[in-house]
Specification:
Shape: elongated
Radius of gyration: 22 Å
CATH architecture of the largest domain: 3-Layer(aba) Sandwich
Oligomer: single chain
CATH topology of the largest domain: Rossmann fold
Helix content: 25-40%
Order of helices and strands: EHEHEHEHEHHHEHEEHEHEHEEH
Strand order of the largest sheet: 8-7-6-9-10-11-12
CATH class of the largest domain: Alpha Beta
CATH superfamily of the largest domain: NAD(P)-binding Rossmann-like Domain
Length: about 325
């Protein structure tokens, strides 16, 4: 895969710019690559102004997104690495139909997001948001917290339902089993294995996950088959005290149907970390929905984020230079 390193240095273009500070690649990222891999030429851009110029002769790009015309102009481009787990922004024909390999950071984010899922399960099970609201009012409401449904419950013995058994789902399964939970899951290819879950259903049988689970966790990629997978019909299958958690992508949920199910007390509660439009607009109906906890896309946040990103990319870069198979390769025909 790699070219003869004696003829020219392999150019790596790092253009990871975002309005949220943590999503920006730190300056040491490029410096450390230069020190560890003197045979490469690393260009790290502070913004997108000169991407068109710099990508033309880049062999490797680290970026949140790249436009179709930039891919067409990048004649030397062989590999794109996304610091995100989701790569739907790259799934345009010019890239999908090219020889360019795409990798993502699903293994970077998976274990961290899984911790967030477990935290949300405990928060919902122990009715922590309600306790905080009552504390603000200086109210000792033990009886009220018990009487109002859904009741405070144990996590051990509850059933966790996973829609998706990728990096997040696998990590959640391991943690949930350690807590004594039963785990059921759905995945596109059940023959790949159960990853420690007690039962695995095909994507066509995802209704069983909604029926059986006390906590339904959405951790699937966005595809034509997963958009609005949590719709009115499936929410109606859930137990009256069951809760829905979304750490995948906002479009996995029909927000109107979820709002109605929560207002009508058809399900016990929900916790959302991702939304179709981010930041969530102040006028969005979700802010005022009862029994809904909102976290502002913080599931993957960690002070070790870029150390984890660097470890994965440096490992893959060494593989690339050695002509070896890369890790975390995206199947462009499937979009994940």
């Amino acid at each position: 895969m790699a070219k003869n390193q004696t003829t020219r240095k392999t150019k790596i273009l790092v253009v990871v710019h975002h309005g949220f500070e943590l999503w920006n690649a730190p300056s040491w990222f490029a410096d450390r690559l230069r020190d560890q891999f003197p045979q490469v030429n690393v260009v790290q851009l502070p913004d997108y102004k000169s991407v068109d110029e710099e990508i033309v002769d880049a062999e490797i790009a680290v970026a949140w997104s790249i436009r179709p015309q930039q891919v067409a102009a990048a004649r030397s481009l062989r590999w794109i690495h996304s610091p995100a787990a989701a790569v739907h922004q790259f799934m345009f024909p010019e890239l999908v139909n090219s020889h360019i390999v795409v990798t993502n950071a699903r293994e970077v984010h998976g274990p961290v997001v899984a911790e967030h899922v477990i935290a949300l399960i405990f928060v919902l099970a122990k009715k922590i948001p309600e306790a905080v609201r009552l504390q603000d009012k200086h109210q000792w409401a033990q009886q009220r917290m018990w009487d109002e449904l859904p009741r405070v419950r144990e996590v051990s013995g509850a059933t966790l339902g996973l829609v998706g058994l990728g990096s997040i789902g696998r990590a959640v399964t391991k943690m949930a089993k350690a807590l004594g939970m039963r785990v059921v899951a759905s995945r596109e290819y059940p023959e790949k294995g159960n990853e420690g879950a007690d039962a695995v259903f095909a994507a066509s049988e995802v209704n069983e996950v909604f029926r059986q689970a006390d906590y339904v966790v959405l951790a699937a990629p966005i595809t034509n088959g997963t958009k609005a997978i949590a719709n009115q019909e499936r929410l109606a299958l859930m137990k009256p005290q069951a809760c829905l958690i979304n750490v995948g992508r906002g479009p996995l949920i029909d927000e109107g149907a979820l709002a109605a199910a929560l207002r009508d007390r058809k399900i016990g509660g929900a916790a959302l970390d991702v939304f179709p439009i981010e930041p969530l607009p102040p006028e969005a109906q979700l802010w005022d929905i009862p029994n809904l906890l909102i976290t502002p896309h913080t599931a993957a946040l960690t002070d070790r984020l870029w150390e984890r990103h660097y470890a994965l990319f440096a490992d893959n870069l060494q593989r690339y230079l050695n002509g070896e198979k890369l890790l975390a390769v995206v199947d462009k025909s499937k979009g994940y």
